[in-house]
């Protein structure tokens, strides 16, 4: 599930199609995508079939993060390109740990702007 502040969007299971529809209507969906991508340890493995030349992408890493990123792919968001460039834009990260129960990442947006993304247990993020 993806919590957006005003609603919960299902990102897997029998309600996937409805979740994609709800996500595409969300006014801040790009901020949600960026938040997951910049606060994720998941990565993309690219493979090219030697016979067909067809390229495939596979999200690897934490199962929950990979599932949400795959949801974004299903919702036709351009996550592969964003994930490839995320390290160049990341200013700093405080990694997730069991004590803080959250991860924080600061990302440079343009020349004079920084956005801070936080993920984690809601009771700790809102603290």
Fraction of helical residues: 25-40%
Q: Beta-sheet strand percentage?
A: 25-35%
Uncertain spans = none
Q: Please trace the helix and strand order, writing H or E for each element.
A: EEHHEEHHEEEH
Give descriptors for this structure.
127 residues; three-stranded antiparallel β-sheet; single chain; alpha+beta
Describe the structure.
Helices cover 37% and strands 29% of the residues. With 127 residues, the chain is of the alpha+beta class. It has one domain. Helix 2 crosses helix 4. The longest helix is centred in the middle third of the chain and has 12 residues, at 63-74. The model has no long low-confidence stretch (mean pLDDT 85).
What layout of secondary structure does this protein have?
Layout: E1 2-3, E2 8-9, H1 16-25, H2 29-38, E3 43-48, E4 55-60, H3 63-74, H4 79-89, E5 90-94, E6 102-109, E7 113-120, H5 122-125
Antiparallel strand pairs: 1-2, 3-4, 5-6, 6-7
Short note summarizing the structure:
By secondary structure, the protein is of the alpha+beta class. The protein has helices spanning 16-25, 29-38, 63-74, 79-89, 122-125; strands at 2-3, 8-9, 43-48, 55-60, 90-94, 102-109, 113-120.
């Amino acid at each position: 599930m993806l919590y957006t502040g005003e609603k919960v969007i299902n990102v897997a299971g029998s309600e996937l199609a409805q979740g994609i529809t709800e996500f595409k209507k969300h006014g801040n969906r790009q901020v949600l995508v960026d938040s997951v991508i910049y606060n994720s340890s998941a990565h993309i493995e690219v493979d090219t079939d030697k016979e067909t030349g067809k390229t495939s992408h596979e999200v690897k890493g934490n199962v929950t993060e990979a599932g949400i990123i795959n949801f974004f792919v299903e919702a036709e968001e351009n996550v592969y390109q964003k994930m490839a460039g995320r390290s160049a834009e990341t200013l700093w990260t405080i990694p997730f740990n069991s004590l803080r129960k959250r991860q924080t990442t600061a990302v440079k947006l343009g020349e004079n702007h920084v956005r801070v993304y936080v993920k984690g247990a809601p009771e700790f993020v809102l603290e």
